[in-house]
């Protein structure tokens, strides 16, 4: 039975190579071919001798199973939402999504860490799926590799990865961190730690565990409310980890020089976007090295409305005047349901490219 290799660390590949009777440098070559060169077929790994390529491709060898593209949903703004199929022989089949967003000088890839999500944030369409299953490390890192390979003709020099698609990354901690280590490994995908951001709804034990990691991504906290009462209503996880507990874990987090938190705040018109909310947010993030990203609500099949341009500006001004770096982030890919909180396997009437199943 072939062994799945995608997602394996350098150490795990060394063990695999040793079991085949191969020397450790062959494992390093395989690691380089998969993660640095994005080769998914053994036959294309020209850095390996032909005999080894054949052996790897044989029944007792290995296999590399990247997420399979089911559909592409290109947005008018240039971003592309991918609907992927994962699973098969050993893992339950599921569909997940990732979004590729090109910009001047860089591309940002938003990936999923779970199929569906159990956290149940009320403004999030993914929550309506419930948790289908955790992704493996290979399924997580595979989304980045496939999106890069798909767009290889137009890649900019810098790649950012945000773990903000379907799922709560800190509730699939081990697989997520195995994938992140490959993304950040200079011999792997070779991304800079400040260019990989893990976004959490506020799973405090996961934040504490992440703080102890030697190699870790930047951390973003989905705040979205200025009081416990408001946050309980929007994000039931707040009942388990209320604001004072969550923010205390941020204050204790061992930020490195030049590292900072990002607090994400989805502005819901008439719900959490008043000047009083802004003043409370200033007090909440006091003494935390952080910036705030304001994300105006994207219309979806949920009972919220977008904030007005005036309320967005006033909210931002209050934070900035109190010394909190604050940016307004307009989500991309809204026409193809690729925006924040919209990843829920939505079929859209927009033009898309359907691939062979
Ligand atoms: S916002 Fe994130 S954590 Fe909350 S339900 Fe959606 S996917 Fe899960």
Report what the structure shows:
This protein is an alpha/beta fold and 357 residues long. The protein is built from eleven helices and 15 strands. Strands 14-13-12-11-10-9-6-5-4-3-15 form an eleven-stranded mixed sheet, covered by helices on one side. Strand 3 and strand 4 form a beta hairpin. The radius of gyration is 21 Å and the shape is elongated. The two termini are 24 Å apart. The structure holds iron/sulfur cluster. Iron/sulfur cluster binds at residues 117, 119-121, 124, 126-127, 166-168, 201, 341.
Write the layout of secondary structure elements.
Elements: E1 3-4, H1 10-19, H2 24-36, H3 50-57, E2 62-63, E3 68-74, E4 80-86, E5 94-103, E6 106-110, E7 114-116, E8 131-134, H4 137-150, E9 158-163, H5 173-184, E10 196-200, H6 204-211, E11 218-222, H7 228-234, H8 237-240, H9 243-252, E12 261-267, H10 275-284, E13 290-296, H11 309-321, E14 326-328, E15 353-354
Parallel strand pairs: 1-2, 6-9, 9-10, 10-11, 11-12, 12-13, 13-14
Antiparallel strand pairs: 3-4, 3-15, 4-5, 5-6, 7-8
The structure holds iron/sulfur cluster (SF4).
